[in-house]
Amino acid sequence: MSGLMVAGALAGLASIGATTAAATTVVRRERTFLPRGHAARVDTRRDPVDVALRYGCAGLTVGIAVDAQRRVVLAGPSGRFLRQHVLEPLAERVRRRGRVHAAQHEAFGVVLEADPNAGADLLDRLEDALVPYADLLSAVTGGALRHGHVQIMLAGAHRRALEARADRLFFAEGTLNDVGRDVPTDVVPVVAEHVAWRIGWDGRGEIAAEERYLLRSLMRAAHLEGKRVRFYGVPTGHRIRRAFWTELHSAGADLISAENLGALRRFLRGRHAHRTTYGPAPGQLWLPERKVRANDRPARR
User: Fold this and answer.
1) Which SS3 state, helix, strand or coil, does residue 90 take?
2) Are strands 255-258 and 228-232 parallel, antiparallel or unpaired?
3) CA gap 34, 119 in Å, rounded
4) Are 82 and 74 in contact (CB under 8 A)?
5) Helix or strand or coil: residue 82?
6) Using CA atoms, how far apart are residues 211 and 208, in angstroms rounded to an integer?
7) Cα(288)–Cα(281) distance, rounded to whole angstroms?
8) What does the pLDDT look like over 2-17, one tens digit per residue?
9) Helices 238-251 and 261-269: crossing angle, nearest 10°?
């Protein structure tokens, strides 16, 4: 074989090796997505969205308030805008990648916990902040639900005021008290509760059979209505925290909130990401497909 042919063969092998390595890298990155992970109250961080995405979370919670100019800002003394520090980073990621997470099948969830003094016009002010991102968001239009890349949910929202809006870009996050009361899923798609509200177990020893049955029954009932379930408030002690996470995951909790995202990530990566029985059929995505233009480039992250 001539030297030229040998060089060509070696170049081909190098190309195959590079392609394989690139594919391996992509697969490895896909595994970092945690469809059950949720970042709890990261609004104190400089870049809350970046923190949640760095750990592969499927959603995050931030506190919001309304400033003197009636603009929606993140809670705390910083006065940072919801649009600038939450909505725009998510929109930019979708523009670059096509989705928030390449492996996601459901909308990335953003839970907003409003300051009690936000005022009666909070829903109007929130709508104003969300309108520029309408193409990004799940929405109700003319009473019909449209799935998007990001779903905004307001915790503790005034239910009647929200239901009265035939067109809106946000939803309510309810509690398990909403299960079994004919609350529409296009109003309350997710119910969330603190682990101590219904469970007397402290994470030590085995959970009582009655409490395990109650937990799983509530979970099944919510899923039958098409609602996802999020739990938060898990104690921070390592062993107790792990015991709670194990029980919640086994019961079928859709989302587990945590402040220690590194620990949650290690826990969830060791378990299969179960799917609930309500959602899209196999192979069907809730999220809209996006046409990729020729000049779109994959993000380097």
Assistant:
1) helix
2) parallel
3) 35
4) yes
5) helix
6) 5
7) 15
8) 444 444 444 444 444 4
9) 50
Query: How far apart, in whole angstroms, are the C-alpha atoms of residue 120 and residue 122?
Result: 6
Rounded alpha-carbon distances, angstroms, from residue 189 to 24, 81, 214, 260: 36, 25, 21, 25
Q: Are 81 and 74 a contacting pair, CB within 8 Å?
A: yes
Give the whole-angstrom CA distance, residue 151 versus residue 255: 14
Q: In whole angstroms, give the CA distance from residue 167 to residue 176.
A: 25
Using CB atoms within 10 A of its CB, is residue 222 exposed (0-12), middle (13-18) or buried (19+)? buried
CA–CA dist 137, 191 (Å, integer): 19
User: Between 235 and 294, where is the model more confident?
Assistant: 235
Residue 301 contacts by C-beta under 8 Å, 6 or more apart in sequence?
none
**Distances from the Cα of 134 to the Cα of 95, 110, 150, 151, 164, angstroms:** 14, 14, 10, 11, 19
Residue 129 corresponds to which tokens in the numbers above?
A: 């902040």
Contact predicate 168/127, CB 8 Å: yes
Q: What was the pLDDT predicted at 274?
A: 55
- Quote the pLDDT of residue 20: 40
Tens of pLDDT along 153-163? 999 888 888 88
Q: What digits encode the pLDDT tens for the residues 131-156?
A: 999 999 999 998 899 999 999 999 98
Stronger pLDDT, 64 or 42, i.e. the higher one: 64
Whole-model pTM? 0.81
Q: Which two tokens stand for residue 296?
A: 């779109």
- pLDDT for 292 equals 31
pLDDT attached to residue 288 = 53
